[in-house]
Amino acid sequence: MKRLSSVLMIGATLFLLSAGWLFAAPVEHEFGVKQYDDFHRVLHPLQHEALPKADFSRIRAKSSELIKHGRAIVKLGIPRGTKAAHVAEFRTELSKFNKALARFSSDVKKGSDEQLKVSYSAVHDSFEMLAAMLPR
């Protein structure tokens, strides 16, 4: 039983380490849509450097640039070439992204670090959903 537990623990650790390589997109990652690429260039170091260190002052310092690029995504709307099967879902997620961006903007100014963490994470997660639906 002890051996099985050790094997499972080692397996889980190896999986998590390898998953980090799979899901951590390099900064050079391009989506092929300028607004998404611009947003991601600001988002990536915040997600993979500032957030893990709870460096909320860095997140706040870059927030105006992130919000500017986020608004450009909202203004763009549904990118040309988006699969018809994704249009309704894209529209819904774009609305969620816009609301998450507004909440984040508010929390940057007057929210606690914990509130900022939650609203920043919502922006990140919503962006990931949108990016997954982009035409390739």
Descriptive overview:
The protein is mostly helical. The chain has helices at residues 2-23, 34-50, 56-76, 87-110, 113-133. The protein has five helices and no strands. Mean pLDDT is 85; it is low at 4-27. Helix 2 runs antiparallel to helix 3.
Keywords, separated by commas or semicolons:
single chain; 136 residues; mainly alpha; Four Helix Bundle (Hemerythrin (Met), subunit A); 5 helices; 77% helix; globular
The assigned structural class equals mainly alpha
Counted by DSSP, the helix tally is 5
What's the gyration radius in Å? 17 Å
Number of strands: 0
Mean pLDDT: 85
Element-by-element helix/strand order: HHHHH
Q: Span from first to last CA? A: 47 Å
Spans of at least 5 consecutive residues whose pLDDT stays below 50 are: 4-27
The CATH class turns out to be Mainly Alpha
Strand content: under 5%
Q: Can you give the helix content as a percent range?
A: over 70%
Largest beta-sheet details: none
Short note summarizing the structure:
This protein is an all-alpha fold and 136 residues long. The chain has five helices and no strands.
Write the layout of secondary structure elements.
Elements: H1 2-23, H2 34-50, H3 56-76, H4 87-110, H5 113-133
